[in-house]
Amino acid sequence: MAEKWHPDFEQLVDEHQSMVFSLAWRMTGDRGLAEEVAQDVFLELDRHMHRIESHEHALNWLRRVAMNRSADALRRRKVRGLDLWVDIEEKHGAPTEERQSPLSARLEHLLSTLPEAQRAALVLRYQEDLTPEEIAATVDVPVATVKSNLHRGLKLLRAKATTNLKEYIRGL
Amino acid sequence: MDFEWPDQPEKIDEFERELKQAMERRPAPPSLKGRILQQRSARRTERVHSYTVWWQRLAASVLLAGVIAGGYGWRQIEERRKGEEAKQQVLTALRITNQVLNNMNRRLTDRNRAEK
Question: For chain B, which terminal residue's Cβ has fewer other Cβ atoms within 10 angstroms, N or C?
Answer without folding.
Answer: C
